[in-house]
Amino acid sequence: MKEFSLKIRVYYEDTDAEGVVYYGNYFKFIERGRTEMFRKIGLNQSQMGREDVYFVVHSLSSNFISSAKLDDEIEVRTIISELDLTSLTFKQNIIFGDRKIFNATVKIVCVKKENGVFKPIKIPTFITEKV
Amino acid sequence: MKEFSLKIRVYYEDTDAEGVVYYGNYFKFIERGRTEMFRKIGLNQSQMGREDVYFVVHSLSSNFISSAKLDDEIEVRTIISELDLTSLTFKQNIIFGDRKIFNATVKIVCVKKENGVFKPIKIPTFITEKV
Amino acid sequence: MKEFSLKIRVYYEDTDAEGVVYYGNYFKFIERGRTEMFRKIGLNQSQMGREDVYFVVHSLSSNFISSAKLDDEIEVRTIISELDLTSLTFKQNIIFGDRKIFNATVKIVCVKKENGVFKPIKIPTFITEKV
Amino acid sequence: MKEFSLKIRVYYEDTDAEGVVYYGNYFKFIERGRTEMFRKIGLNQSQMGREDVYFVVHSLSSNFISSAKLDDEIEVRTIISELDLTSLTFKQNIIFGDRKIFNATVKIVCVKKENGVFKPIKIPTFITEKV
Q1: How many domains does chain C have?
Q2: Average pLDDT of C46-73?
Q3: What is the CATH number of the domain that holds A57?
Q4: Which of the residues A33, A46, A57, C60 has an alpha carbon 20 to 30 A from that of C52?
Q5: Which of C10, C12, C25 is most worth mutating to test chain D (most D CB atoms within 10 A of its CB)?
């Protein structure tokens, strides 16, 4: 799938006492981006969960270039950069106005639950044929 | 059980762009108070969950009297004010220095999960004999 | 202003280990509802902040009737029920499908900052003439 | 300063519908670790803010090795690995039992506010002589 765009409004809940978005909340924003990209191509996480197929974040790296503030409408741009047997890698940027304020590379792994512990599995074909 | 006290430090994550604790986060603080009170009397929520016994919040009312700020060490004081067949009611105050900054009355209901939906149940005696 | 409606999607960030929305997060949802209602009538909170006019929550009461889950699209319905010299009161409902799952009455007070402390002020007419 | 350890309890607020800690919340935990390390050596962020000295996260990379769950008591271990003219780099691990479940490298930059925008500054000596 090509780049997917999601608009997000910054609310008080997202900001902190420095007056800008709390650094940990950018990870909420990009997770919404990945979730809505999945939904767009017909992949619903709660439905996948009922079939014991989950994705968990394996690793990430990110740069905080500038800050979003209360009431800003930011845009999360998401693209899948790599597809392996058990994992997917996303490149994600957050844009405000004409500036990139944040970027991240996020690798997620497909898992099932076994006695309450996540075990990596091959990504099912109903997913790979869509991404 | 008599009043239970829990000290909590305010971090950046708890504050918002108004420079004080975000109003919704006081409900996190008082839930920590209820959880630690339970732990103190030998009630562990994850263990209760494995036996399909949960508590969910039924209703609450609260007053935001003053504001906590970054780095403040606040104190959550919790007391059980009512015990019914299926519910518990807590009175909770948050103190900073010598001032009450927040209070709440919170009623929680004992439930089990039935096809993914919570159903009220009688509070098991292993709980009522402890609270 | 008449009732204002805001659609909100439930993400992983909103849920907890009971499998449903964490009780404290409903207060984020209804704050988004109040913020977007304000924006709709031309009131922008970050702009108000630059003029040293803020609203802080004074008190609230709420009922948790049923639970929202991952991927649910819920609707926050907001109406102003009372306007006083220094405060506004909102009635807010959260709807999923054809069911009310949450309601709240929230009183907010208009303040300015004085030496880092909030002081109640008369709601400015540029606000009262719009709500 | 040598390695600093902080114990943290996992509450419902930290978990999500997968039954484990939400990935974005590990960044809250490690920020508490950095904050308490600073406090230990006499650096108080709210006091620094009053002198217009802030730290903002510049970049980070992290690995999610295993999951923390409700009621787990985890330990955040923090060490400063690099000190530059304007930045500090931390190595941070989260341990549960005898297992490392998360690690991160976090670079923070010292800034002041200029017209609401953060500008990098040399780390003041009252800080460098302590870390």
Answers
A1: 1
A2: 96
A3: 3.10.129.10
A4: C60
A5: C12
